[in-house]
Design brief:
39% helix, Alpha-Beta Plaits, globular, alpha+beta
């Protein structure tokens, strides 16, 4: 993926995330419609040993194995970018991943998929904190 493609992908995904609706506030008919909407799954990891390149590489390698889960439509694994410092940018995390699913149901299935469970089992010792942002198109 070229830098330009990566920027375009991240810009589009950020736009989707920025306009996302909180599912709990939707009516029953809106919930039915959004259940089949694309879902963006953003996960941020803080390593237990942030100075360990080996731990960072192991987590990144583990995240790449999740590409094999059939429900995952796309996967981007990254580290904080060296962009201009601004008050709204948080670069305190060490590794991130962004996935796209076709629906909430697909994301739910991913959560219990054996490859996801294996990733958690093999890599959870590497992180001390994880934050997840799941977004639907508004």
């Amino acid at each position: 993926m070229t830098d330009q493609q990566r920027r375009r992908f991240l810009t589009q995904a950020t736009a989707v995330a920025a306009t996302a609706t909180v599912a709990g506030s939707l009516s029953a008919s809106e919930k039915e419609c959004t259940a089949m909407s694309p879902l963006i799954h953003n996960v941020y990891f803080w390593l237990k040993n942030p100075d360990s390149q080996e731990d960072r590489d192991a987590l990144i390698a583990g995240l790449h194995t999740l590409r094999e889960v059939p429900h995952v439509q796309s996967l981007f694994v990254g580290v904080p970018a060296s962009t201009m410092e601004r008050g709204v940018i948080d670069t305190s995390y060490h590794v991130s991943e962004m996935m796209m699913f076709n629906s909430v149901a697909d994301q739910d299935a991913y959560q219990t998929h054996p490859l996801h469970n294996k990733f958690v089992e093999e890599c959870s010792h590497l992180w001390e904190r994880v934050v997840v942002y799941d977004s639907l198109s508004a």
